Model the fold of this input.
Amino acid sequence: MSIKEIGCCGAYCKTCKPFYTGTCKGCKIGYDTGDRDISKARCKIKICCIVKGYDSCADCPEIETCPAIMEFYGKNGYKYGKYQQATEFIREYGYEEFLKIANNWTNAYGKYK
Done:
């Protein structure tokens, strides 16, 4: 289990086929190795996290006032609320506890004990 399995927005990426097959073009893969260039990224959330050195938005002290992540969490759809719930869980309990729970999920989000 690794923090790289958690998207900047709180999604649990390990359950996504492109992530585990090595073809992922999501938030984190390739930026740490230089295989991808952050200046070409379009996602404001990803750019912010990577440029500021955060593992996810859970690390940001300004998350409650961030228009990019709040707009994302406010989108219509169940998953966006679940991603916000993941970020809040990480802020309260940490990445290690989140990964212990998420490792049993089959989607990018799941239930908490």
